[in-house]
Amino acid sequence: MIFALVGNQNSGKTTLFNQLTGSNQRVGNFPGVTVEQKVGSITGRADLSIVDLPGIYSLSPYSSEEIVTRDFLLKQKPDGIINIVDATNIERNLYLTLQLIELQIPMVLALNMMDEVQANNGSIDIIGLREILGIPIVPISATKKHGLTELVEQAVETAQNRKKPEHNDFCTGAVHRAIHAITHLIEDHAGRQGIPARFAASKLVEGDDPMLECLQLSAHEAESIEHAVKEMESELTTDREAALADMRYQFIEDACGKCVVKVKESREYRRSVKLDSILTHKFLAFPAFLGIMFGVFWLTFGVIGTPLSELTEWGIEELSGVIEGLFESFGLNDILQALIIDGIFAGVGAVISFIPIIITLFFFLSMLEDSGYMARVAYVMDKPLRKIGLSGRSFVPMLMGFGCTVPAVMATRTLASERDRKLTIFLTPFMSCSAKIPIYALITAAFFPRHQALVMISLYMIGILLGVLSGLLMKKNVYKGVPVPFVMELPNYRFPSIKTVLLLLWDKAKDFIQRACTIIFIATVAIWFLQSFDIRFNYVTDSAESMLAIIGQGLGVIFSPLGFSDWRVSTGLITGFLAKEAVISTLAVLTGASITELGDILHTLFSPLAAFSFLIFTLLYTPCVAAVAAVRREIGSLRGMLFIVIYQTAFAWLVAFLVYQIGSLLG
Questions:
Q1: Are residues 156 and 235 in the same domain?
Q2: Using CA atoms, how far apart are residues 269 and 274, in angstroms rounded to an integer?
Q3: Across residues 204-216, what is the average pLDDT?
């Protein structure tokens, strides 16, 4: 059985999905569109799958999330729907519920956060509301795992018995007459398309063009529909969309008046108001954000992550020494031994040693996101983003760019405006992805050990500021237009779900290890081969005589004005196009150094100023090949993709050049 999990944003949908599926989940894309979907098997029930659909407020096709959800429900035809509703904000959440009921798919309403309703002296008459809506209702608390077993059992029973919603007619008066007239007119057309006639009629009343096109109506039928809608608008003296929305909200208001005792002002709400007086304050919000992020970086690189990374380095070196001893006692071929120890262990091991730092950073970032703080950051960033022609909604995919550029670029599908989407894709690579963390951590530890956290946060801020500068430039010349309006709900601050945070950390660690064992492994072997053989394929003891040295020396001329001309550094930047972590593995292989020795050897390749110039170039130059492929797919043109790659690389070279040359003059 397949169940669709549907609900508003911030209704606890992700928490419920994680609680039901645990680690039994996989990630992919919805058919025909690169919007991410999560599919999971319910823990202990391999025969039950849940598809976590994007958070939406209605089934109107105004955004990619709404289109994806509607298409999935209409075309994939799941066995049942689990509609999660925030019980503390039930009136707004039920608007989507009424639309889902019209689909006539077996459905259970999961009334979430009931513990908060009861704690704040509110109540909901479950039996009464169930009779009014005509669907099973199960009170739950997703965070505390209350009612989840009952929810699964009710969903299975409802789906097995094909219990469709008992009611689907919630309208009265002029809206009632218009919908029923249109339903009779289109019944045959809707049946041929496998769409419930009542749902299709409601969409046509709203003026839903995709539905009109899907039903393939004749010109006469379309005119009849418009005539019915005009009569309704004339009688109600309002437009078609407002008429349907008013009807639904009137029904919801009446139902809640009978069954709901509203919660009083909750402790969570009062706490959120107090925190927001600082964290969203006109003048204090941005300094507070900088302070929080500085604390995150200080804990990551100064207190927790770095010691754990050093412990991992020690473990990898010890393992490498043991294996090297075994190879020598076995008499393994010297070249094969060099490949495994000097190539694979040195390269891949150098990258893996940074896993603790990445996990620590994402632990704090996921805690901030799950607490509700990141929603505030998007709200605060709306005003400055409008200066560069975007809305606060663009901040969400840009924020994802700090993790990985690929899903961040894909997430721009949620933006309603094509112009906003392209400009956001252009700016996303300026948000420093987690794959660059090993580079930053190694260089800052070697050259700026006393100010590591400060240098790290300055890199992130430089990326953001230069992204803003580029956005201002592009807004006036390439991506002209006005940003779409931005509306966002700010949820109450909540203590993060430890399970949700741990699942996210597991995903990040797994993804990092997979990259280390695939792309970085292949790049490491290729680099070892090229630096171990000359152009006649003779094995060389001095890598300066290798094929790679010839390539790198040619590239060194380009980077010499930036302060680093050594061919090994140039080569590292090239392999960084495959995966940014490969820069470190390449340097480890080419210098023949162990992980702990690599920091000291860097002082022979860079001066402190050149090291900072190198960090700036790494921060800004073209994203990895996977990200470039995602950009090509989302923009839909090779020309647009090449423009971004060339601009990023040229801009990175120019900024690094200015940093080094001005720094040299001042020094």
A1: no
A2: 9
A3: 88
pLDDT score at 515: 66
Do residue 193 and residue 73 come from a single domain?
no
Number of domains in the chain: 2
Maximum pairwise Cα distance, the chain: 94
Q: Which amino acid is at 74?
A: L
The last residue of one of the domains, among 261, 278, 294, is 261
Residue 39 forms beta bridges with which residues? 26, 51
The residue among 167, 594, 62 whose CA lies nearest residue 347 is: 594
Which CATH number fits the domain that encloses residue 193?
1.10.287.1770
Tokens of 40: 């999971």
Given a cut of 50, whether residue 308 has pLDDT beyond it is: yes
Cα pseudo-dihedral 283, 284, 285, 290, rounded to 10: 120
Distance CA 667, CA 658 (A): 14
Same domain, 189 and 152: no
pLDDT at residue number 3 = 95
Residues 11 and 95 in one domain: yes
Residue type, 652: A
Say yes or no: 134 and 230 in one domain: no
Q: Which of 462, 653, 443 is nearest to 661 (CA)?
A: 653
Q: Which of 577, 595, 570, 38 is nearest to 355 (CA)?
A: 595
Residue 273 CA to residue 329 CA, distance in Å, equals 68
* pTM passes above 0.90: no
The three-state (H, E, C) secondary structure of 260-294, written as one string: EECCCCCHHHHHHHHHHHHHCCCCCHHHHHHHHHH
Q: Do 30 and 112 belong together in one domain?
A: yes
Same domain, 115 and 93: yes
Strands (E), 53-199: 80-86, 107-112, 123-124, 137-139
d(CA 400, CA 65): 17
Name the token pair of 130.
Answer: 């169930």
In a domain, 182, yes or no: yes
Within-domain flag for 201:
yes
Q: How far is CA 119 from CA 16, 88, 110, in A?
A: 20, 11, 18
C-alpha torsion 137→143→144→147, nearest 10: 20
The neighbour count for residue 601, using CB atoms within 10 Å, is: 17
Q: Is residue 254 in some structural domain? A: yes
188: domain range? 173-261
Residue 485, CA distances (Å) to 282, 334, 386, 420 in order:
20, 65, 10, 11
Residue 483 has pLDDT above 70, yes or no: no
DSSP code of residue 38: E
- Check which CATH number belongs to the domain holding 14 and give it: 3.40.50.300
Examine the domain organization and report whether 131 and 224 are in the same domain.
Answer: no
Residue 575 corresponds to which amino acid? Answer: T
The answer to whether position 7 is within a domain reads yes
Q: In 3-state terms, what secondary structure has residue 540?
A: coil
End-of-domain residue from the set 222, 240, 261: 261
Contacts of 268 (CB under 8 A, 6+ apart): 116, 492, 493, 494
Instruction: Tell me how far the alpha carbon of residue 301 is from its chain's centroid.
Output: 24
Cβ pair 142, 19 in contact under 8 A: yes
Strand partners, 411: none
Q: By three-state DSSP, how is residue 332 classified?
A: coil
